[in-house]
Design brief:
heterodimer, A: alpha/beta, Elongation Factor Tu (Ef-tu), domain 3, Rossmann fold, 2 domains, six-stranded antiparallel β-sheet, 9 helices, 30% strand, globular, B: alpha+beta, eight-stranded mixed β-sheet, four-stranded antiparallel β-sheet, 13 helices
Chain lengths: 290, 365
């Protein structure tokens, strides 16, 4: 464990305190998720910075705390976007928030995407459904520093088009990506009328992307089964296990390696992850109920 | 080594009380020996015997007045150093959700009668909490520990296998060996020596000193259980699909008694409540069990829906991944999980069964 991460765990304990942020805008993304855009209240954002792939514990007064990845640009850490899927008691309470409401923010926690590993070569991002959310800050950072990478390839899939987040900005994204020479491939398992892109699971995009395995670093994020198949697919294309990274998800209640809930084999996802090098977890991903 | 007679022992506890310590010792309640706040030596279980087995715990009478001629009840130091419910902070809505820390306990704990397994368990929880949890650290550093060397282990004990007993070797200020008329006392820390100086003692005789090891030998010979720890953690890592997990799952009720009784299990929930007026919220942490469905709830689903998955998580964490995480096994061989399991599941038997058919896998679901 790095000294920096230990320091974060010491200064941001499970009992708080949290920084306070004010909701500025709420953007519905899919039928069961929205992005909460917020800014810090007063001087609460002082010293706050995060790396792409890290997460915050979001607190709703009296209701509870949930771990949510940060989906906005790491270069604008005072304005945070968190995409929340409404699945449980606490996340559903976030559904009732409106602009002007306050939330608590404790973080950032966890190991970020190692963008430096990809610099000088090709960055391949493979994302499924809301798996786009934790990897979006890495995409934004790579686009802003386009010159540091050779190819930028984004393969994004979802079950249906309506389950793809950030469609509000899709046109802007497509335009910017075209200008920057970013290769974006979209696919869905089941198309809907008006869908102009691919049909099939995200791994079907691998041949189209013409990955040059020796110079590529891959960031993979999505449901566990998708990461399992994507990992194997990338290995089949000749990529080394050490050049592939995945982002894991487990129950987290403290985010500081105390509560025990986020264990995945010997790892604590909150501190050792959420981003793991594929060779650290490939065998574990094969085991049910780990 | 010093010799302390029984009245001197009572005097030692009294002097701890007078010095402002909250005495925590064994006492009989509800048909069991529990660890609780005690007033002095008179509250200790003199003349009480204990019978332990898988799913069995009974008290009996001895024909002498020995105070420590039993192994341990379901409690360990954990219940005090890492309480089952602990308020972490109160949070006020007015003034913007500023957390206020909760005040510390007025009196430090003085633990009397912890066994070597329990002292090792505290050393193990230290590795989890000391660095990251100031409240634990405060309680731990202020506390005094008077250990007792075991002479009569329980039927489910296997501390010899885990190398955590029966003789106290870590974490004590004073360690006692009970004799018929008094105690032999080893001093573990300068603080222990200071406490001991408050009461009348004499130098132990050579035969008395020899008795300490003979007591430990008798305990070793009477160990209720044995566990082969060779090839851990790998044995469990390579047997994640062993049929025994399904077998034990058919017996396991997923009640969580084992994790509650375990002196090292540290998993907890962090729970938020709000007062009826809605102005003040409380963050509390509560012991959790990896045997519950909600323990593994993530991203809208339960990661471990079956008892087999949960039992494997617990056993593999305790005996395998704990070693990777903290550099020590999570098990001290106290056998509480066996005694307090309502269906008598025995970890030593489960691990032996996996070892016996090492490498066997479930072929069809």
């Amino acid at each position: 464990m790095s000294a920096a991460s230990l320091d974060v765990r010491r200064t941001q304990p499970e009992g708080g305190p949290t920084r306070i942020a004010v909701i500025q805008r709420i953007v519905p993304e899919t039928p069961d998720s929205s992005t909460l855009w917020s800014t810090f209240r007063g001087s609460d954002g002082r010293g706050y910075a995060f790396g792409p792939g890290q997460f915050n514990m979001l607190y709703l007064f009296g209701v509870g705390e949930i771990p949510i990845s940060i989906s906005s640009s790491p270069e604008r850490p005072q304005r945070l976007g968190h995409t929340i899927r409404f699945t449980g008691r606490v996340s559903n309470a976030f559904r009732g928030l409106e602009p002007g409401d306050e939330i608590g923010i404790r973080g950032p926690f966890g190991r970020p995407w190692p963008l430096y590993e990809a610099e000088g070569g090709d960055l391949l991002v493979v994302a499924g459904g809301l798996g786009v959310c934790p990897v979006r800050p890495a995409i934004e950072w790579a686009m802003r520093h386009r010159e540091r990478f050779r190819r930028l390839i984004l393969l994004v899939g979802a079950r249906t088009p309506s389950l793809l987040p950030y469609q509000e900005q899709l046109d802007w994204w497509l335009g910017t990506m075209e200008q920057l020479g970013v290769e974006l491939h979209l696919t869905v398992d089941e198309a809907e009328p008006g869908w102009l892109y691919g049909v099939g699971v995200v791994t079907t995009l691998f041949p189209k992307a013409q990955i040059e395995s020796a110079r590529t670093t891959a960031f993979v994020c999505g449901p566990e089964i998708m990461m399992r198949f994507a990992g194997k697919g990338l290995l089949n294309m000749g990529m080394a296990r050490e050049r592939i990274y995945v982002s894991m998800e487990r129950n987290m209640q403290c985010a500081v390696q105390l509560c025990g809930h986020c264990q995945f084999g010997p790892m604590f996802v909150c501190a050792d992850g959420p981003v793991f090098r594929y060779d650290e977890v490939a065998d574990l991903l094969e085991v049910d109920e780990l | 080594m010093r010799y302390l007679d029984r009245s001197g022992f009572a005097g030692l506890l009294a002097s701890l009380s007078e010095a402002g310590y909250d005495l925590i010792g064994p006492t009989v309640r509800d048909g069991a020996i529990v660890l609780d706040h005690v007033d002095g030596a008179g509250d200790l279980p003199a003349g009480v015997s204990e019978e332990q087995g898988p799913g069995t715990y009974r008290l009996g009478r001895r024909d002498d007045e020995r105070m420590f001629a039993w192994a341990h009840g379901s409690d360990a130091g954990k219940r005090f150093l890492f309480p089952p419910r602990e308020v972490l902070a109160t949070i006020h809505r007015n003034g913007g959700m500023r957390a206020e820390p909760v005040p510390e306990e007025a009196r430090p704990f003085a633990f009397v009668g912890l066994r070597s397994c329990d002292l090792h368990a505290i050393a193990i929880q230290d590795r989890v909490f000391m660095d990251l949890d100031p409240a634990y650290r405060r309680r731990r550093e202020r506390a005094v520990f008077i250990g007792v060397n075991c002479e009569v282990p329980g039927g489910t004990c296997f501390c010899v296998s885990m190398q955590t007993g029966p003789r106290c070797s870590v974490g004590f200020d004073l360690a006692l060996t009970e004799l018929d008329a008094g105690f032999l006392v080893e001093e573990g820390t300068p603080r222990g020596s200071e406490l001991l100086a408050a009461v009348e003692t004499r130098e132990a005789t050579a035969p008395e000193v020899d008795e300490v090891e003979r007591v430990a030998d008798r305990a070793r010979a009477a160990m209720g259980r044995v566990l082969d720890t060779s090839d851990l953690p790998d044995l469990l890592y390579r047997n994640r699909t062993h049929p025994r997990w399904k077998d034990v799952a058919e017996r396991c009720l997923a009640c969580g008694n084992c994790t509650n009784a375990c002196p090292t299990c540290f998993c907890h929930d962090v729970v938020d409540d709000v007062t009826l007026t809605g102005d003040e919220a409380t963050r509390t942490r509560e012991w959790a069990t990896c045997f519950s469905a909600e323990y593994s709830w993530a991203a809208g689903e339960v990661v471990r829906p079956t008892h087999a998955g949960r039992y494997r998580q617990w056993l593999t964490h305790k005996f395998a991944s704990w070693i990777d995480q903290y550099g020590t096994s999570g098990c001290v061989g106290c056998g509480r999980c066996i005694t307090w399991c309502p269906v008598g599941i025995d970890v030593t038997e489960e691990i032996a069964a996996i070892r016996f058919r090492d490498g066997e896998v479930v072929v069809a679901g």
